[in-house]
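Sharing a chain and its predicted structure for anyone who wants a worked example. Both blocks are below, sequence first, tokens second.
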Amino acid sequence: MPASLPSKFSLRCLSHVAGKVDFHPDYKFVPLSKSAAERDVELLTEFLQKHNRILVLTGAGISTESGIPDYRSQGVGLYARSTNRPVIYQDFVKSAHIRQRYWARNFVGWPKFSSVLPNDSHFMIKYLEDMGKITWIVTQNVDTLHHKAGSRNIIELHGSTNRVMCLHCDHKMKRSELQDQIINENPEWTAQAMDIAPDGDVQLSQEQIDGFRVPHCPKCGGDLKPEIIFFGDSVPKATVNFVFEEVNHCDAVFVVGSSLEVYSGYRFVNKAHALGKPIAILCIGQTRADKLADIKIDARCSEVLTQIELS
């Protein structure tokens, strides 16, 4: 453990025996995994030691230890636990009913989702950034946990739940401001739910949703949408081009907590491989780019990262 990391950084680091199955009793959204072999940690340490312009790509698997579920993990992901699916962009735009359902569920989930804190993995990436090892952090997550950990050079590939945009004018606002607006417009409406979804959603019945007043743009009265990329939507071309340019300039790519099943992230790893850039992947389970990686570690992110010591 690097000496410059805060002492609290190591408090949640569990002791492991190589090959022992870790059931993660405190991490209900983290899939079962085996502890990383000592040699795996050594190889990743050498990878990080050798390269000084690393592009980091993070996915939902880095945030599960903070209590945010992912979509696809076996047994614990949203798809494994329920038949619920994320909202589709075109449905959201076209249907007032779907917008009502989305904002009602998001309103209920927001207090819990917005209070989630970064975990050891986010802090370790911040530490590597401070050491000058990382050029950019490209995250597929919308949870802002890299920001909360103090990282600076962050590209939010799929946007952020912290921002809201109008679909009809150029108005944008903070999600916290929208929460106050919804409260003012729904003084008698209440609902409760337990678990949050990867984008801050919760499950509510239609009976619970009935009566919820959908917020509208305070500037033009238009429909509001979180500034995130819904399924069926596209990452802005300028963002894609910027990341591709950074892939050209980096000397290695490090994937943390992403299965890369979504093409929006996979294409950058594929490009790095085509350019002959070294690639390391740290993720529980198989990923779409395992065959492209020079190093693949199938283990819990923070278990491995908290063992990294760089000179």
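Comments welcome. The first strand starts at residue 21 and ends at 22.
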